[in-house]
Amino acid sequence: MSEITLQGLEKRYGETTAVEEVSIDIDDGELLCLLGPSGSGKSTTLRMLAGLETPTEGEIRIGNTDVTDQPAYERNTSTVFQDWALFPHKTVLENVAFGLKMRGVSTDERHERARAMLERVQMASHEEDDPTNLSGGQKQRVALARSLAVNPDVLLLDEPLSNLDKRLREDMQIELREIHEDLEETFVHVTHDQDEAFTLADRIGIMNEGELIQVGEPDEVYENPKNRFIEGFLGDTNFIDGEVARASEDAVHVETGLGSEIVLPAEREPAVTEGTELTLSLRPETLSIDGSTTSGSEHERPMMADGSAMNAVVGTVENVLYRGSTVRCSVSVGGESVFVERSAGNTETLTAGDEIRIEWNGADVLAFHADGERVTF
Amino acid sequence: MALLTNTASLSGSLGSIRESLLDQSSSNRALLLMAPLIAFELLIFVIPFFILLRISVAGSSTDHVFAEGTWSLEAYREVLTSDLLWSIIGYSFQLGAIVTVLAVVIGLFYAYAIWRSTGLLKSLLLFSVVLPLLTTLVIRTYAFDPLLVPAGLVPGTVGVVVAQLYIVLPYAVLAIYSVMATTDWDVVEAARDLGASRPRSVLEVVVPQVMPGIIVAAVVSFAWSVGAYAAPELLSNDITFAMHVEGLMLSDMRYPEAAALAVVMLGLMGVCIAGIFTVLNRFGGDFELA
């Protein structure tokens, strides 16, 4: 039984608050990712779970036990640290066997179990090595084996992949996912990398400035962000500022710097009135582009069958950036700059100065109040 | 094409020659940098040591400090068979061992305190280590007299141990702290996270890492305390070998015997320090507690 409950968890250092009123229930066997920029309090939250940091306020329960005041060495949690923190004066095998040694397991048995764990992470041939001579990826595996060897109720991962290069990081993400599925243990993984969180997580908890803003399944938080911060943090997007021109029961018209009104379909009487300031988010994947502009089409706004509105604008390509698999174009539309993406495989090449037409479905546009809160219509 | 390959191989071999030249010049440069130190050691230690060695195998003389040009092992026979000398040697080593153990243990705690403290407290702790070094050793040691006499510790071995400990402790602390300062706190957290209690985590991961500092602290404390002069001279009636050597040379004028005693002590010290290295190095990695 290793479900975790955090209740009103807070950590203050003098005047500064690192973590503010974090409450969350983590299910047994779940892989939760705490995602946030640096300084968002995600690592501090993890350290409080590990017992390496004492909460100023609030309660931590693991299983049915209140562990708030339990020191790290009495908790059956195990942490994989960002820089792995391997013991430099012990061999790889001794590192992995360390937790069992502290639990009073005999030398033969703990070495046998440590070997099995090294086998699990494909490091069996390195058991006599000095950990300081290993590569980053190998250290990461040893650190993981060391933490798993004690058979923890909860495995805590504090950005252990952030020091690895991209390819290795992606391999390790898949491997971590597999290990999690095998062990059926509760994992809490801290990261600032949204791709990593999407790859690994059953649920993602997004933190900013010490607060846990939203918890949900990856697609849920991506498609239904609670506020503007999450929308901006979970991927690249175009934020366009505008003002409500007209609001009716089935559509909200927003005046923006793009030169024409953007129409957002509404399902009920909208909570905005004429003059309300909004920020709209246009994700590049919802924008389709058409290089052959046909004059006159920009003022047509056909309503779709489901009531959503197709929007279209024409702009001039300012610059083109090759990003490997995709090509990103920065397009000047009216007074605003909007970026769009297309697959690099597309044979139609775009160059600076080209006129292009950008289209999107108004239903894909998210709107946020000036204070960052999401507005739904 | 052939020309091209030739040029390539030529530049390759030239490169390797240049590299080996660089290697050599860098080792030469290191030697050059060490030259003043080597000259200093030769002048201050090696040459006087050979003079000492020579005197120790010279015969004694009634009107001179030793009989020049003669050869004799009489002084060694005297040293090795005298019960008095063996008891003096024993006392010196006993003093050295007690002070060393205390200095290393207290030094380890003190260094840990400096390591874990921050800001003003850290500066204060570091400053108080250095502070005693600003007073001359004799004054510092004399100051123990009025301090320890009321407690009945002077004259006596306890008083000598306290005073000698006070002399070597700053060096022990600095030797251990200098290594500890370079170690990461992370590994201690990792040890606690894996179930090591506070003392156990320090013993398991901090002590092995600071072992080079502990070895330096132990050797400095031991060498200095075995050869202690000021503290036993000022605070006790017991005689250490350094005091006895002084007596042999300045009062008895028996240079060969004094030199022989010094050579024997040097040999014994060498053995002890090698022993300290071997034993402590064993604790550098993973070790079993009894």
TrEMBL record, chain A:
It is a peripheral membrane protein. Keywords: ATP-binding, Molybdenum, Nucleotide-binding, Transport. It catalyses: tungstate(in) + ATP + H2O = tungstate(out) + ADP + phosphate + H(+). One of its GO terms (cellular component) is ATP-binding cassette (ABC) transporter complex. Residues 4-234 form the ABC transporter domain. GO terms for molecular function: ABC-type tungstate transporter activity; ATP binding; ATP hydrolysis activity. PROSITE patterns: ABC_TRANSPORTER_1, ABC_TRANSPORTER_2. InterPro entries: AAA+_ATPase, ABC_SmlMolc_Importer, ABC_transporter-like_ATP-bd, ABC_transporter-like_CS, Mo/tungstate-bd_C_term_dom, NA-bd_OB-fold, P-loop_NTPase, Transp-assoc_OB_typ2. Its EC number is 7.3.2.6. It is an enzyme of class 7 (translocase). Its main location: membrane. It comes from the Archaea. It is found in: Cell membrane. Belongs to the ABC transporter superfamily. Sulfate/tungstate importer (TC 3.A.1.6) family. Part of the ABC transporter complex WtpABC involved in molybdate/tungstate import. Responsible for energy coupling to the transport system. The complex is composed of two ATP-binding proteins (WtpC), two transmembrane proteins (WtpB) and a solute-binding protein (WtpA). This is Molybdate/tungstate import ATP-binding protein WtpC. It comes from Natronorubrum halalkaliphilum.
From TrEMBL, chain B:
The keyword Transmembrane applies. InterPro entries: MetI-like (IPR000515), MetI-like_sf (IPR035906). Signal peptide: none annotated. GO terms for cellular component: plasma membrane. It comes from the Archaea. It is found in: Cell membrane. CDD domains: TM_PBP2. Residues 89-277 form the ABC transmembrane type-1 domain. This is ABC transporter permease subunit.
